[in-house]
TrEMBL record:
Name the record gives this protein: 2Fe-2S iron-sulfur cluster binding domain-containing protein
Coiled coil, from the record: none
Lineage: Bacteria, Pseudomonadati, Pseudomonadota, Gammaproteobacteria, Vibrionales
GO terms for MF: 2 iron, 2 sulfur cluster binding; metal ion binding
Keywords: 2Fe-2S, Electron transport, Iron, Iron-sulfur, Metal-binding, Transport
CDD domains reported in the protein's UniProt record: fer2 (cd00207)
Pfam family, one: Fer2
Amino acid sequence: MTYKIIIKPSNVEFTCDSGQTILSAAIEQGIMLPFRCKVGACMTCICKMIEGDVEYQLEPMLTNKERQQGWIFPCQAYAKSHLILTFEE
């Protein structure tokens, strides 16, 4: 399945296959998202999910409160629906 990812407020759009991480899909399509380690350790890519659903193969190091607030790691997250994300607080 392929999902549409929108980055707010710039409205940059790209697609993500269900078998690839959000970050890898962005890089593959020439969309530059902030990242450093690609394994969720550096927290450079952390962003807020405004809308949608993701899953992880390994749960990231986020507190329950951070998860409830919508924070995700695109380097580790797999889209399970269309997503709207923001890198702004």
